[in-house]
Protein 1
Amino acid sequence: MTEIQYKFHPNKKATIITAPFSGGQPKGGVELGPEYILNAGFEKQAQALGWETAVVHPLANTDYESKKTDDKDSYGIKNTSIVSQCCEKIHTAVKSALDSDSLPITVGGDHSIGMATVSAALEHNPDACVLWIDAHADINTPKTTDSGNLHGCPISFVMGIDRESFPPEFSWVPENLKPNKIAYIGLRDVDEGEKAILKKYNIPAFSMYHVDKYGIGKVVDMALDAVNPDRKNPIHLSYDVDAIDPSFVPATGTRVEGGLSLREGLFIAEDVAQTGLLASIDIVETNPLLAETEEHVLDTVSAACAIGRCALGQTLL
Ligand SMILES: NC(=[NH2+])NCCC[C@H](N)C(=O)O
Ligand SMILES: [Mn+2]
Ligand SMILES: [Mn+2]
């Protein structure tokens, strides 16, 4: 295979942005994701694929983890203040990477940071589209969420859905994502309120049913046809590792049976890379503390690294 030309990153510079944060959901351990992924050698792996890398830690010297609570506020959500502060820092880091022509690879941490990365990608280039790879739609609003966990809400903030239900802490979030600019792949655990939102806004969503019916190759084509029909706009790939079946990726906080095979999961990243349009990526929800065995940790961290490598151009031949 010939080497991929990255249209939006021709100089092949990448910035690994660590987001060691767990405040978007109640379980401890997901804040260790970036450390495990870096210790597994991810930066060197990126370099071996020809990328010039930097690593930045926008949450250094913060103490959000110790401020985490399990109580809902008057808006029905948890940890509003720390999620907002964390996301604002990640947002700034993603923008400054993009401004210096470097591809941001935000490594979580939980998926609440999607509000930061997606909105930054769209601020940088309003034509950008989003592929959200996940078992979950993460489009609850403070009004619809049952759990009150903000990792289930990032998309609604960036789309400005149920605006009146947002606490003022999130008023910094640019509402710059249009419903026809995001497509989902891998869905299989979508809340009733979220289903209503997906329907109302006609958001392209490919569940595991579609993956089984059409095959993953066709599903990625259909998702891109929906959000990037001329294949000319930048792609933000937001990858929640729980999209992949828990038999391959066990160490994550909201496991749902019946997911993507590891190959299907990696194919998505490979195929996005093949478009040459990848502009930014998130790899989130690796929680090493939820593993039952050492092997579970290894499987999950290896899969997270592999997603990153595939997106950065690793090919099988
Ligand atoms: N990023 C994730 N793993 N999100 C899981 C969200 C689960 C559920 N829909 C909720 O709102 O709480
Ligand atoms: Mn998920
Ligand atoms: Mn998610």
Note: The chain is about 35% helix and 15% strand.
Protein 2
Amino acid sequence: MSAIEVIDLSRHYRLGSVDVPALRGVSLSIAANAFTVLSGPSGSGKSTLLNLLGGLDRPDSGHVVVAGQRLDTLDDNRLSDFRARHIGFVFQHFNLLPVLTARENVEYPLLLAGVAASERRRRAAELLDAVGLADRAANLPGQLSGGQRQRVAIARALALRPALVLADEPTANLDSHTGAAIIALMRDMQRQYQTCFVFSSHDAQLLAAADHAVLLRDGQLQAPAAVKEAA
Ligand SMILES: Nc1ncnc2c1ncn2[C@@H]1O[C@H](COP(=O)(O)OP(=O)(O)OP(=O)(O)O)[C@@H](O)[C@H]1O
């Protein structure tokens, strides 16, 4: 079963009079309940594709279907609502709100979704426990290490139990030891929460941990290889 269908997707950027083709006619299926890595050299189109999968950007042609919903049929408000409810994001720079504690950061998407306070507290506590940070719930992001911040970001991404979690270079700002721990945690969370995880990365450790690798070069798909059978 696939969580995402990508159909003949193209995205060009204009730099003055120069046309930069970032993605050229990409079609693929991404499996549900699996760990998929988008890989390829710098400039190959990984972030562009990830942004289109997450509805953060719109293609010039082609379309994306996430959890059965064609994103191109949604206007900006409905797309933003769909994103909030069905897609969790993890960023290279963590993007936590600096004035909120770890617990409040995890609760934030639940607050926006109108979840009652007692349920927000319960779910944030469960998730912080799952990422090994139960004792750091009251800390601000500035009082946490890079690896701990990324753990909070992963807990936040899972708060609304999304169909899909997208992560753009989630280990790029971490040392290799911390990066390996974050990869193991994401793998664990993917299994525990039965979610589709998609990452962009140059990180060989992340590629080795993946069920599927999507290889891009010059905005086009290379052979999509099954790294190993999905667990
Ligand atoms: N906002 C933009 N304006 C113009 N060109 C852009 C823009 N964003 C990306 N590009 C170009 O589109 C192409 C694909 O970029 P993209 O960021 O998707 O690649 P990437 O594989 O994620 O690279 P990296 O691994 O370095 O992050 C590149 O040629 C890049 O220069």
Note: Residues 224-231 have pLDDT under 50 and may be disordered.
Protein 3
Amino acid sequence: MLWGESVINVVFDNGFVSAVLYDHVTKRFGRIVAVEDVYLEVPEGRIVALVGPNGAGKTTMLRLAAGILAPDGGRVLVYGYDAMSVKAKRRVGFMTPMDRGVYWRLTAMDNLIFFGVLYGLSLGEARARAKELLEDLGLGGRANDWVATYSTGMMRRLEIARALMHDPDVLLLDEPTSGIDIDAKRSILNFIRGLRGRKTVILASHDPQEIELADAVVYINRRILNESPALKVVKVLVKGSVDGLSGFNVEGVGDDEYVIVTTIDKFNELMSMLAMYDGRVRVVDIDVEVAVAEGNARKMERVLRRREGWL
Ligand SMILES: Nc1ncnc2c1ncn2[C@@H]1O[C@H](COP(=O)(O)OP(=O)(O)OP(=O)(O)O)[C@@H](O)[C@H]1O
């Protein structure tokens, strides 16, 4: 069946339109099942974080919504249009750090104008849009420098600007602040925060500060294991048998038993461990708490809480 012309807008009870709908989507790469029977509605104007261990299918989810990959089962709709269709693609911007999507021997401004014109903007429109985005992303002063002279953090901001040149409704961000310095990170996080309500953002992330931006956190490990509204504490509530947690600092008793993880590496370790328990351990809740520690450093606390009766 061809979905290109079919329009299905999912409107929630609360009036929200589903900007992106993963309707029982499966994606395989040969024998690898990257995404399996995923059903997810992303309401318009919300920021949703996809969280999960390496290889969990997060990037695949983004590429499906970008119309770069076709699902093997189910369908992906963007505002009711098949994600592979031109109508859908015009409404989506995709930023992935691995994507060398800008020309190093052009200035940032010329890059953005080039991509804007490709999307059908007039030269004047593209120039104005590029100027606005570069200013908003703190690159105004370097707009006419060659991209080859950009730092990683500047490059990342430019890639976000590129993804937004055609003013898409949906922005897909793959680990937008990984591997960049604190100032660039802060600038990108503030920019994403400013998109709330104006764009629908799906971000794949391992980073608590990115996750904290989200209105909803979706834990995925090939299948969606849990969806939870964003809260102040990352708590990964699990159901199942968790033997290997001896490497973690388990605190509390009974219903209040939990593990505090204070570094992102430890958090990832925990995620990987849970991935190995796939099928035997079900994650039933995730939540992030970001506490401001003394001095300027921000201290992250991720909590894995184990509840008696859920194990
Ligand atoms: N083009 C491809 N060809 C073959 N296998 C692929 C391809 N893309 C992804 N995979 C596989 O699909 C699975 C999901 O990969 P994906 O990149 O979506 O995970 P991820 O959650 O984004 O991981 P990470 O956190 O490491 O970025 C992995 O097993 C990966 O090896």
Note: Residues 29, 32, 34, 52, 54-60, 204 surround adenosine-5'-triphosphate (CB under 6 Å).
Protein 4
Amino acid sequence: MISAWSVADVRAAEEPLLAAGVPLMDRAAFALATQVLADLRARRRSVRGSRVSVLAGAGNNGGDALFAGAVLARRGVAVRAVLTSDRVHDGGLAALRAAGGRVVDLAAAPERVRDVAAEVSRDDVVLDGLVGIGASGALRGRAAELVTALGEGPWVVAVDTPSGIGVDDGTVPGPVLAADRTVTFGAAKPGLLLPPAAHLVGDLTVVDIGLTLTGPPAVRRLEPSDVAGTWPVPGAEDHKYTRGVVGLVAGTATFPGAAVLAASAAVRTGAGMVRYRGPDAVARTVLAARPEVVTAPGRVQSWVIGPGVPPTADDADDGQLDRGRAGLAAARGELAGLSRGPVPAVVDAGGLSFVAESCPPWFVLTPHAGELRTVLRRHGEDVHRADVEAAPLTWARRAHELTGATILLKGAVTVVVGDGVTYAQADAPAWLSTAGAGDVLAGILGTMLAGRSAEVVEDPALAAEVAAGAAVVHGLAAERADPGGPVAALDVAEAVPGTVAELLASRGA
Ligand SMILES: NC(=O)C1=CN([C@@H]2O[C@H](COP(=O)(O)OP(=O)(O)OC[C@H]3O[C@@H](n4cnc5c(N)ncnc54)[C@H](OP(=O)(O)O)[C@@H]3O)[C@@H](O)[C@H]2O)[C@@H](O)CC1
Ligand SMILES: Nc1ncnc2c1ncn2[C@@H]1O[C@H](COP(=O)(O)OP(=O)(O)O)[C@@H](O)[C@H]1O
Ligand SMILES: [K+]
């Protein structure tokens, strides 16, 4: 798992070490320079004669970059420092000069921004040390002008964070130089994992500078090994009911495909059984695709409610809203015939329109940004889809506060917010952005919740971990189904058994 701590937590961890005279900046700068040297070797084959620009702002972030520049200059790299503020880290600047680095002071020559940007763009590597965890708001002044003028040309290593991102919330309030690599110190920061800033981070390298971070991380990212470690493997004593039955309310005559996709994914993820609840015509289509599915009513260990179901009751809903409501009542433990006590539920697509005002944490709502906006508006928030896309963490947290449910907000980076925990998963290729991919996720998650049904109801934070795990499996299956080109949703469901097998094989490795 990758864990990210807030700026306040990182500063608190730094404080005693700095007071004790531990040379944190030396450690950070040396690790940064070592990484840049490795990148230069990989990209140019030789270090000597290569060219690096160091963009340095007023604070310690600029200090890190300048000290790293000094190390590079001593290795034969032609280093140019570009200063964007009339203040600069004195020690860093002196070290760079002593090592033979050149200095361009943009604060003293603001008219040169465009020319300097053009020169910097031609360098082998640009180190972005404009601002780090001390950033407040959008990048300002000369730093903003320089970043805007640089555009998307150069190969960039961000120092600690891409300058100007919302370090704690992952927002992108203004211009940010997109990084190819980010070298971050002490611990990952939330904004490096959260969208939309996560898209500007490139490869993330976390450098140990000796900080001890206690307390829960602000944001976590599960890795495949985390999911492998908790995957329920059936034993001799297991049978289909112990493995978990998924109740599926999905699809209508108008949208039968969603039912097929969710059912296929649930079966392929290893459900003990999938019970399909829906109109006969759709049930026939589901059975034609997956004869393992059962249509008789009975007890379930999790519900998946809503894929391919319209948001309002009308002739086209084929009775699915009533079945969905009954499923949700059963998941709350209110309908004894369909479960023994409460069980987890995945509420997707049309199901989001009839989920009650307040939910238990074992209900996982799986909206995309547009659907989350609708959920929030129902709770009185004046919010637009663009607001959700600009600040996914803020709005997913708000939806969790308002509904009590665990929220899985879908996107290129999927954000999951549960009781006291937040995950940000970036596991899927962009080819997964295709109709039906969400139905497949709902099926995968339904089976994973059914396999740990009682535990999930017991532990308010576990639904979020399982939901994040489902995003991992979904993303890995999409990678597996990705031929290097288009990915079809049903192919993702078909790729799940191989994905799980690979996860399990990695347990022993
Ligand atoms: N302490 C240590 O030894 C260690 C520190 N470490 C390193 O230090 C970094 C933190 O350093 P820091 O605290 O000096 O803050 P930093 O990120 O450089 O920014 C502050 C400066 O930026 C400016 N500024 C702010 N917002 C701005 C904006 N929007 N647009 C433009 N400018 C803006 C602000 O200016 P002001 O607002 O005062 O005008 C201020 O001068 C951290 O990320 C890590 O790299 C590591 O090496 C570990 C050891
Ligand atoms: N650019 C992207 N990169 C990776 N995954 C994506 C991207 N865009 C969307 N996804 C994923 O694809 C799925 C789309 O789900 P959804 O929007 O509900 O589609 P549908 O309703 O058609 O099934 C989600 O799991 C989402 O996280
Ligand atoms: K930076």
Note: The mean pLDDT is 96.
